[in-house]
Design goal:
Keywords: Transferase. This is Glycosyltransferase involved in cell wall biosynthesis. GO terms for molecular function: glycosyltransferase activity. InterPro entries: Glyco_trans_1 (IPR001296), Glyco_trans_4-like_N (IPR028098). The two termini are 36 Å apart. α3 links the parallel β5 and β6. The chain is 40% helix and 16% strand. It folds into 2 domains: 199 residues, Rossmann fold (3-Layer(aba) Sandwich); 160 residues, Glycogen Phosphorylase B (Rossmann fold). α2 packs antiparallel against α13, α5 packs across α10 and α8 crosses α11. The chain is globular. The strands form 2 sheets. Strands 3-2-1-4-5-6-7 form a 7-stranded parallel sheet. Strands 10-9-8-11-12-13 form a 6-stranded parallel sheet, sandwiched between helices. By secondary structure, it is α/β, with parallel strands linked by helices.
Length: 367
């Protein structure tokens, strides 16, 4: 199949990954290509050359908090998506997979049927745009929890859970001594690193953390003051180094302050044989069971400290077994292939010509 994947343009698609969306996009593109599909990844400049991406623009970057600068970035981003869609419309693709989560990419029907994967809870103006486009798009959520959250916007949502490349995360049944906990992810308010630091200290477990700093204000106000004895900043690690740290950790800590839509770090930890301690938020309770993790009530630092201590004693072989049975990326790719085949058979959107699409996108962005 000839498949176009639309990536978001804020960050490049390649290691070291800024977050789970970038990682998912990379795995989807590489996994589909490995299974013989012709994949065109439309992405920001600087993306992994191994994917043979089609560069759209320089990375837009995260919001800065400066209204004028952010408005200018938003205008550049919308224009870049309009350019992306025009190129996709003329590309002769059989399937378009929308993985960018931007309302501009829902502006009008394309000549090929579109699948869209939801990775985060609803927000405006994307939710309103999706409500208008839902009838002509095959919508997927990465967890049952997330599908329920979006049900008021789009009642017809399939669920295809995220997966990880199990071969890249060899299990380690003998973690490092002395023991430590590991936190990894974007260093941003919604990921709750400050709570993980407090809980690990309360549990008496040294904490190492790794990730991209995407919010300097959060770092300065909530993280920098907590640095010190028992807390080690590993920086933004490459894949090899991050995997090694995860394999050696006694427990992985996941401390979101929002309803986590999936949590790829949970899947990666289990693949390494590393049990998880976290908050009972979002999809974490779908991924973990009592053999592989412990969950505290949201925001309960003392409860998370107890969860860290209890999870550290869980059977690491059981963690790997759960990853193999439920979180294998090959299963994820197979499910997307089945969806594409169904979409192709019904040929949704095939009656929309390139000229019709060009008129639609032009009217959408003319204002």
């Amino acid at each position: 199949m000839r498949i176009a994947i639309l990536s978001h343009l804020r960050f490049p698609i390649g290691p070291p990954f800024t977050g789970g969306l970038e990682r998912h996009t990379h795995l989807l593109a590489s996994g589909l290509r490995a299974r013989g599909h012709e994949v065109a990844l439309f992405a920001a400049e600087g993306s992994d050359p191994a994917l043979r991406p089609i560069p759209v623009c320089p990375p837009i970057g995260a919001a800065t908090g400066d209204p004028r600068a952010d408005a200018a970035s938003a205008a550049r981003e919308a224009a870049a998506y309009a350019q992306m869609l025009r190129r996709v419309a003329a590309g002769g693709f059989e399937i378009v997979h929308n993985n960018c989560l931007h309302e501009a990419t829902l502006a009008g029907p394309l000549p090929a049927p579109m699948a869209l994967t939801l990775h985060v809870p609803p927000w405006e103006p994307f939710a309103s745009a999706l409500r208008q486009a839902a009838a002509r798009i095959d919508i997927v959520a990465v967890s049952s929890h997330l599908a329920r959250v979006w049900s008021g916007v789009a009642p017809r949502i399939a669920v295809i859970g995220n997966g990880v490349d199990l071969a890249a995360f060899a299990p380690n049944l003998a973690p490092a001594r002395p023991p430590y906990a590991l936190w990894s992810g974007r260093v941003s308010p919604e990921k709750g690193l400050h709570l993980a630091i407090d809980a690990a200290r309360l549990a008496g477990m040294p904490l190492r953390f790794a990730g991209a700093r995407v919010c300097q204000e959060y770092w300065d106000s909530a993280i920098a003051p907590r640095l010190g004895l028992g807390v080690t900043d590993l920086g933004h690690l490459g894949e090899t180094d991050l995997t090694r740290q995860l394999r050696e950790a006694r427990v992985a800590v996941v401390s979101p302050v929002w309803e986590e839509p999936f949590g790829l770090v949970v899947a990666e930890a289990l693949a390494c044989g590393t049990p998880v301690a976290g908050f009972r938020r979002g999809a974490l309770q779908d991924i973990l069971d009592t053999a592989t993790g412990r969950l505290a009530e949201p925001g309960d630092v003392a409860g998370l400290a107890r969860a860290i201590a209890e999870a550290a004693r869980l059977d690491r072989a059981a963690c790997r077994a759960r990853a193999e049975s439920t979180l294998d990326a090959r299963l994820m790719i197979e499910r997307y292939e089945a969806l594409y085949a169904e979409m192709s058979a019904t040929r949704r959107g095939r009656d929309v010509s390139t000229d019709q699409f060009s008129s639609s996108i032009a009217s959408t962005f003319s204002g």
